[in-house]
Amino acid sequence: MSMDLIQLFKAYAKTGIKTRFQYHLDSFLLSLAVFVREASSIFGVYFLLLKFDTLNDWNIKEIFFMFSILSATYSLFIMFFMVFRDFPDWIKHGDFDRILLRPRGIFVQMILNGADWVAALSHGCISILMFILSANSVGIRWNAGSIFYYLVTMISGTVIQGAIFVFFSAFNFYFSKNHGIKEFVFWKSRRFATFPVSIYGGVVQNILMFVIPFAFVNYFPAQYLLRKSDMAAYPEYYMYLSPVIAIVGFTLAYVFWRFSLRYYQS
Amino acid sequence: MEKYIKFATIKFMSNFENPFNNIIEILETLLFFVIYWYVFRTLYQGKQTVDGITCSMAVTAMLLSIGFDYSYYKGKMYIQEKMRQGTLLVELIKPVDFRLRLLFEDMGKTLFFVVFRYLPVVLIAMLFANLQGPKSSFHFILFFISVFLGYIISWLFDFVCNEMAFFTLSVWGIVSIKNALIDVFGGVFVPVWFLPVAVRHILIFTPVLSIYYIPVNLYFGLYDGVKMILAILYQILWIVLLGWISDRVWKRGIDQVILKGAG
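YS: structure for the whole thing
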């Protein structure tokens, strides 16, 4: 069964990539534009820290490293959860009905089907660039333990972002139009995650930890590897909580999504 | 002229139709500002000034640049859309100047955004952030003149990028890259004062500084006497230059469209 799924993903990926990169120059420009757009915010931080040296004890390399986790997990996220981003369109254009008719699990099909390869490539490149610029100069000892932790971080971060989107897309079964809110919640809170969570006030911190848990996508995992002084303000076990948040968050989002599916009227 | 003002008024009024959108936009701008407010509070811990810039100046500069950046109506791909729909030539037959109509329509929208989306953000920000006022009422008036010139520059810059639709399949990439450059080097992601000197020297040869940086400097009264006039003249120079470029490209583009029979 799992081999079968991999085959299916391969087939979807192949057609997806072929479609998106059909016009070479155009798709190159498009990827470059996404790359520049996304890199611009971290460039801003770079210039800022050129002047100020550190932000709450984090230097630019350490912020690069934290940012690389954010963009890597985002890149993985758009390979698997893209459909949930564009879900209102899927419902409106009847694409969702097409999925309902096929002899595979609905949710599985959605996850395998909707990658945005241009964006995934651009964000992937940024994360690799940021990783190369930082990973060897921020004092991380790369051994079996830290590599394993890093891999778990990648999976948890991807799943946490997926959970947020699955949860919000479920509202589309009730109201066909809620594009604004989902985009707003996700994109705006993602911007907060560019900086260490510790710089924000209490309310913002709590939202980023327990409501839209971006702090567990990159801040606490980066803390485990970097051990910055501002970690003293949080319980030690927060550094190990990302997989738990991912599993619990995704389960809740999935259950809510399945439940809401009952109310779907084509 | 009257008809163009009508175009602007229609676009201004049409934004009243969707109050929910406006609330979301206000929140977006506010959140963006809140992030940088926290960032600068943290960066300035234990420091009074950095390069002669105080924390409240940096925060105010961010609020001004972010607010206008959100209000300016850029990134709409009008020429590309018209070409794909095949209605560009129809637009040219109409007894109004296509570009002027677009400019006035966008001005109508922008005015709405400034009054109903940006102003509320400023009012809310005044409640919690330590903002700095303009140096004097004279500087405040000068600031508004400069903001208007900056808006025209931003619009023309956007239009020139949009005109590339005559020559490429999609201008989304070009427009996005242009916007990203304005964000980084124009003062939206980091106040221009903090950019390295070498970078600022290069930026003089681009329209980027004219959009937010010069108005902000005039607001704080950082230019004295002759420099003030030079700053305004520098902005006017960019309007003339970009206007000329957009004119040239427009003529070449339209010729090409007519030759190919597309549009």
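YS: worth flagging: The CA atoms of residues 66 and 170 of chain B lie 27 Å apart.
IM: good catch. Also The radius of gyration of chain B is 20 Å.
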